[in-house]
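RECORD TYPE: inverse folding
INPUT: C-alpha cells
STRUCTURE:
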C-alpha cells in the first residue's frame, strides 16, 4: 500500500531502533515531490508507512557480550607449592628475628665485652686473675722495668695473680699503689746514693728475692683467703693482715730511702750512736716521718678500696711502726754478724712484714675482746 503524497520514485524512511524495544518506529523523512504534486507533504504523520520488518529486524536485536568466565585457579599440590619466603611477605619481617651478621666491628665489640665481663667477674677466678694481670702488665711494662728486673717482673706477676684471685681488683690496686710509691722513693737522689755506695743493687731494680721477701706475708694471707681457712669469721682477719703487711713494707722502704737521701743525722737504734747513712739498723728523723706518712697513705687507700675499715686502717699504721722498730733492732744486733750470715735483707724483710701482719691481727682481736 502506498501513500499518494509521495512519489513512486523514491521514498526514504528513517529507522530509529531502541535497544530495549522489540518493535521499531518508522518515521517518514523529507523526500522528493512528484512534479504533479503542488502541495507540500503532510508532516503530521497522519499516515504512517509501516513495513513489516519483523523478519528482517530480528537480526538487529542487541545482545550484550557476555563476560568471560574466570578460569578456575588450579589447586596447589604439595609438589608445586613454593616454600614460604620473607621476601614475598615483607610485612611479616617485623615479627621475624633476622640473624645477626658478624662483621669486624661486631667481633671487636664482642671481644671487648667478654674481656670486661671476665675482669669484672665476682668473685674473682683464676682465669680473670690471669687475664687481668696479663693485660695490666702489658700496659704498665714501661713502669715495671724501671723498678724490677725481668725475673722480678715474673715474680711480681705471680704475686699479682694470687692477689687478684684472693682479694679481687681492690687488693691488686693496693699492691700497685705500694709498688708505685716504693719505686718513686727508691729513685729519689739515685746519683747521690750511688756515689755514697748506699743505693740498692741494679740502681734500685729489685729482683725476685726482694719481691718475695716483700710479699711473703701477703701471699700467706691470700692463700688463707682462697681456701677459706677459718670461714667467714676469719676472712676479714686475713684481709687485715694482707693490708698491714704491705703498709709495713712500704713504711720500711720509704723511711730507708728518704733517710739515705735527706737524713742529716742517722742513729743506731740500739745505742743511739751516730752512724753513717745506710748502716743496718740506723734511723733518722726525716726517714721515720716519711715512713709514717707512707703507711698512713697506703692504709687510707686500703680503707677507700674497702679492704679495711677506718679503725682497722689505724691498726695497720700502728702495727707497721712497731714492726719497723723491731726490724731495725734485728738489723742492728744480728744482721751481718757472725753466725747470722744467712740473715740478709730479704730474710729481714720477711720477718718485718710477718711481724706487721701478725701484730695487726692480734691488735684487732684484742680490741674486739675488750669491747665485748
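DESIGNED SEQUENCE:
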Amino acid at each position: 500500500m502506498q501513500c499518494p503524497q509521495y512519489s513512486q520514485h523514491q521514498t526514504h524512511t528513517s529507522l530509529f531502533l531502541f535497544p530495549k524495544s522489540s518493535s521499531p518506529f518508522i518515521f517518514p523523512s523529507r523526500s522528493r515531490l512528484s512534479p504533479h504534486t503542488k502541495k507540500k507533504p503532510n508532516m503530521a504523520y497522519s499516515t504512517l508507512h509501516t513495513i513489516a520488518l519483523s523478519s528482517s529486524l530480528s537480526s538487529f536485536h542487541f545482545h550484550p557480550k557476555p563476560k568471560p568466565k574466570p578460569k578456575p585457579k588450579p589447586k596447589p599440590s604439595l609438589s608445586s607449592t613454593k616454600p614460604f619466603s620473607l621476601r614475598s611477605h615483607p610485612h611479616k619481617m617485623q615479627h621475624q628475628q633476622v640473624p645477626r651478621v658478624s662483621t669486624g666491628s661486631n667481633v671487636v665489640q664482642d671481644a671487648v665485652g667478654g674481656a670486661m665481663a671476665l675482669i669484672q667477674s665476682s668473685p674473682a677466678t683464676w682465669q680473670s686473675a690471669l687475664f687481668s694481670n696479663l693485660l695490666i702488665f702489658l700496659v704498665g711494662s714501661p713502669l715495671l722495668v724501671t723498678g724490677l728486673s725481668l725475673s722480678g717482673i715474673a715474680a711480681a706477676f705471680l704475686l699479682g695473680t694470687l692477689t687478684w684471685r684472693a682479694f679481687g681488683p681492690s687488693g691488686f690496686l693496693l699492691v700497685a699503689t705500694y709498688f708505685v710509691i716504693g719505686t718513686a722513693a727508691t729513685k729519689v737522689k739515685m746519683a747521690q746514693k750511688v756515689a755514697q755506695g748506699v743505693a740498692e743493687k741494679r740502681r734500685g731494680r729489685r729482683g725476685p728475692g726482694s719481691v718475695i721477701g716483700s710479699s711473703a706475708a701477703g701471699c700467706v694471707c691470700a692463700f688463707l683467703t682462697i681456701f677459706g681457712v677459718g670461714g667467714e669469721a676469719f676472712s676479714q682477719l686475713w684481709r687485715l693482715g694482707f693490708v698491714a703487711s704491705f703498709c709495713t713494707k712500704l713504711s720500711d722502704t720509704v723511711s730507708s730511702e728518704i733517710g739515705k737521701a735527706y737524713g742529716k743525722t742517722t742513729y743506731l737504734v740500739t745505742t743511739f750512736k751516730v752512724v753513717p747513712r745506710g748502716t743496718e739498723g740506723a734511723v733518722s728523723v726525716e726517714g721515720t716521718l716519711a715512713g709514717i706518712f707512707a703507711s698512713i697513705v697506703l692504709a687510707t687507700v686500703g680503707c677507700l678500696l674497702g679492704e679495711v675499715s677506718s679503725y682497722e686502717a689505724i691498726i695497720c699504721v700502728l702495727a707497721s711502726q712497731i714492726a719497723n722498730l723491731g726490724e731495725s733492732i734485728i738489723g742492728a744486733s744480728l744482721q751481718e754478724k757472725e753466725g747470722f750470715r744467712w740473715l740478709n735483707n730479704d730474710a729481714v724483710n720477711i720477718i718485718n712484714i710477718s711481724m706487721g701482719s701478725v701484730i695487726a691481727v692480734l691488735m684487732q682481736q684484742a680490741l674486739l675482746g675488750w669491747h665485748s
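NOTES: The beta strands are 13-16, 25-28, 266-268, 274-275, 282-284.
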